[in-house]
Design a protein that fits this description.
685 residues, alpha/beta, Ubiquitin-like (UB roll), Fumarate Reductase Iron-sulfur Protein, Chain B, domain 2, five-stranded mixed β-sheet, five-stranded parallel β-sheet, globular, disordered C terminus
């Protein structure tokens, strides 16, 4: 006789042999569980499938509890969610591994570097580009100019050198374009909602791309003649050919994004009018004002802002410089300025930086190439005066510095060496010490911080006005690298979409399991040199703005991609443990204590290995082997905290397991892994 009861108000019909979980599953209702499989006997190991039944004092495990006529079951209540969260936290407190590779975790935009590098290794270039587009557009452009924090975290450097992740991204995008198979943006059906974006730089373009994908009508307004922002007007042609940037902007335009240039907020369009006309507004104007040094003489002719100088170059001008040029600053903008000065004919180019080379924020390759092109670096010096004749700068006085105690950034603070100064003659000075936003008169004053940036919530990107959001260099923290602005825009677009759909306006920070590695962990990894990017010699590049790199060949790209250690979990997208961990906002550090660290990786057969430190002892692997397949190749060894899944490998398993793999399919956490070749298993073990 059938049993009728309800789960969260939905009527469910169960048979006498059913549990709450089996009948709910048949009715299309999901109850979280890690250890249940309808093909195996009830086990009840994970404690995640708890439910609350009205009138029953204790929580029930849905996998074993039988429904009764008239039961009123609740899947979500404060009590249930708290219990599930605790169960998950206990499991995670002794679960080690890498949910995602450190490359992805160190990318502000959370690009799945490991995935697209693997796709390039396999020759699947269109898939690789699609993977990048899941995180942001502009892969060919960003691949050329990003200072690649992903590579800073790459564990391959513990073997020899990090993988050339950024150049591989650019390679894949260039390759599909050359093959006549460019990426095409897929958009949801039109929603009827309209969004205005102020600023067509990396943040504005990224937000427009995602919002258009969500199905909204998007218009970008930008003050410059062309879209691209700092990618066009702040990065020289030799680093980022504008034809590459144009090609990628066109992909976004072809998706249906309207682009309006030569329009400035506060001059040609008004803030209040935009708020009234559009359902949402995103402020992404960037930071276009060069910061002053506040030293005597900086108002002399010949003392230029670094951003202003590069902008003029991007607008098609060829600024005239004298033979002796000094650049103040140590970031990538300073490197662009000094290397551009060389190309414009300056005979002596100095970079003045108040710390040492080790503290320079510029990318190492930029510093090295600047040195190759003849730039002289004057470390531990700081301008204290510019002086000149007839209103034009002719020299600068430098204060000699030394490093003191660390400051808030962790870098040692430069302090003056009393009485130690130096004078150098100069014809022009480029100040590249930072950049700021200039929003005065463009937006309502209540939106501005004391620094002149737009104040917005860091999790919702909302400003003081409900339908106005902000992202990128114009926001709270100020200017940063392009991928940081892109990351903010990616999240802001999600928040805007949620706002337009009436959902919670918030970007969630995902939970990941991570682990530390040392060079000793990779002692047996074969050495393989990083591929050298072919390009112009220093002599060939000093007097022109031709692109300095030619790009990887297909053979180089695949060799470079093959160096990946594949750190992230192979089973991440199917892992139920991490899925539920994020759903219930786990905090496993509440149960911090002893964790296993088993060095041996048991070989189940020639094609299967088991990672006991990822295992949550759900029992699905050995129960599937026994109850579904009818074999006993797996079992448990030890008791309590030391229990592990133990391979019991008769000769039969060596051939049988290769065609079965059902234990791998059943594993909810990726602890069981199959390999196509004995050689790879041998490397792991």
């Amino acid at each position: 006789m059938s049993i009728k009861y309800t789960i969260d108000g939905v009527e469910v019909i169960a048979e006498p042999s059913d549990t709450i979980l089996t009948s709910a599953t048949r009715a299309g209702i999901e109850i979280p569980t890690l250890c249940f499989d309808k093909r195996t006997a009830i086990y009840g190991a994970c404690g995640v499938c708890l439910v609350e039944v009205e009138g029953v004092p204790k929580l029930l495990r849905a996998c074993s509890a039988r429904p009764q006529e008239g039961y009123v079951v609740h899947l979500h209540s404060e009590r249930v969610d708290r219990a599930r969260k605790t169960a998950l936290e206990l499991l995670l407190s002794d679960h080690t591994g890498d949910c995602r590779g450190p490359c992805k975790l160190n990318c502000p935009a959370m690009t799945d570097c490991q995935k697209y590098v693997g796709e390039i290794r396999e020759g699947r270039y269109k898939d690789a580009v699609s993977t990048v587009y899941e995180a942001f557009p502009l892969p060919a452009s960003i691949g050329r100019v990003c200072p690649h924090p992903c590579e800073d975290a790459c564990r391959r450097k513990m073997v020899e050198e990090p993988i050339s992740i950024a150049f591989l991204k650019a390679f894949a995008a260039d390759k599909i374009e050359a093959d006549g198979d460019p990426y095409v943006v897929q958009c949801e059906p039109d929603t009827g909602k309209r969004v205005a974006i102020i600023g067509g730089g990396p943040a504005g373009l990224t937000a427009a791309y995602f919002l258009r994908r969500y199905g909204h009508a998007v218009t970008i307004f930008d003050q410059q003649p062309k879209m691209g922002g700092m990618l066009r007007y702040g990065i020289p042609e030799y680093r980022l050919p504008k034809a590459v940037l144009d090609r990628e902007i066109q992909i976004i335009a072809d998706a249906g994004v309207e682009m309006v240039n030569g329009v400035k907020l506060g001059r040609d369009i008004q803030f209040d009018a935009l708020r009234a006309e559009y359902d949402a507004v995103l402020l992404a104007m960037g930071a276009w004002r060069s910061m002053n040094m506040r030293v005597p003489g900086e108002d002399l002719a010949g003392v230029h802002g670094g951003i202003d100088f590069l902008e003029r170059l991007g607008l098609g001008e060829r600024p005239t410089l004298g033979e002796r040029v000094a650049v103040c600053g140590g970031g990538n903008t300073a490197m662009d300025c000094c290397r551009t000065a060389v190309r414009l004919g300056a005979k002596e180019v100095y970079v003045v930086y108040r710390r040492t080379r080790a503290e320079m924020p510029a990318a190492d390759i930029e510093i090295e190439e600047a040195e190759e092109e003849g730039v002289t670096f004057k470390f531990l010096t700081n301008p204290i005066e510019f002086y000149g004749e007839d209103g034009h700068v002719t020299g600068m006085k430098l204060q000699v510095m030394e490093l003191g105690e660390p400051d808030a950034s962790g870098r040692r603070r430069p302090v003056p060496v009393e009485g130690a100064t130096e004078d150098i003659p100069v014809d022009d000075v480029l100040m590249a010490i930072g950049q700021g936003a200039d929003c005065a008169g463009a937006v309502a004053e209540e939106l501005l911080t004391q620094r002149g940036t737009i104040a917005c919530d860091e999790m919702t990107f909302r400003t003081a006005f409900d339908n106005v959001f902000a992202a990128g260099d114009v926001t709270n923290r100020g200017a940063g690298i392009a991928i940081q602005a892109i990351a903010e825009a990616q999240k802001a677009a999600l928040c805007i979409n949620n706002f337009l759909e009436g959902d919670e306006v918030r970007a969630q920070v995902p939970y990941f399991v991570t682990q530390e590695k040392t060079p000793e962990d990779f002692e047996d990894e074969p050495k393989q040199k990083r591929e050298k990017m072919p390009g112009l010699t220093p002599e060939e590049r000093r007097d022109n703005f031709e692109p300095i790199y030619f790009g990887f060949t297909e053979e180089q790209a695949q060799r470079e991609a093959s160096r990946c250690l594949e750190c992230g979990c192979h089973d991440y997208y199917d892992c139920r443990l991490i899925k539920f961990a994020n759903r219930f906002n786990v905090e496993p550090e509440r149960f911090a204590g002893e964790m296993h660290d088993r060095e041996d990786v048991p070989v189940v057969s020639e094609v299967i290995v088991h990672d006991p430190d990822k295992c949550v002892l759900c029992g699905l692997c050995y129960r599937t082997c026994d109850q579904v397949v009818g074999k006993t190749f797996l079992g448990l060894y030890n008791r309590g905290f030391s229990t592990v899944v133990n391979p019991m490998v008769p000769e039969e398993a060596r051939t049988f397991c290769a065609s079965c793999l059902k234990c791998v399919e059943a594993c909810p956490t990726g602890a069981m892994r199959s390999f196509p070749a004995v050689e790879r298993v041998t490397q792991l073990v």
